[in-house]
Specification:
single chain, alpha+beta, Alpha-Beta Plaits, four-stranded antiparallel sheet, 35% helix, 41% strand
Length: 100
């Protein structure tokens, strides 16, 4: 069975990047640490735009992503970060191969 991944693009409101970064880093760390079905959670920023973030998340399956969205750390992140986000897009993917 292939794993499930999402690729998220976040465009922040101007001036919010410094406050946003620790929130997403805490959420990503907790997801990998506390969720057995979250295998990877990478946080990236655009090289030329610190207010654009990308997340690459790998889960056992789509249901695991839904469980992630019910965790205390995700809810804490969303409560604090929601008003900082200007735009968000999520691409759902089947992970066919991973080479590390």
């Amino acid at each position: 069975m292939s794993q499930f991944a999402i690729f998220v693009t976040i465009k922040l409101k101007p001036g919010t990047a410094d406050a946003f970064r620790p929130l997403i880093e805490e959420n990503a760390e907790a997801a990998v640490r506390d969720e057995a079905d979250c295998h990877q959670f990478q946080v990236l920023t655009a090289e030329d735009d610190p207010e654009t973030y990308f997340f690459y998340e790998v889960y056992t399956d789509a249901e695991s992503l839904e469980k992630h969205r019910e965790t205390p750390h995700y809810r804490k992140y969303m409560a604090a970060a929601e008003n900082m986000i200007a735009e968000r897009s999520i691409q759902r993917c089947d992970l066919l191969a991973a080479h590390t």
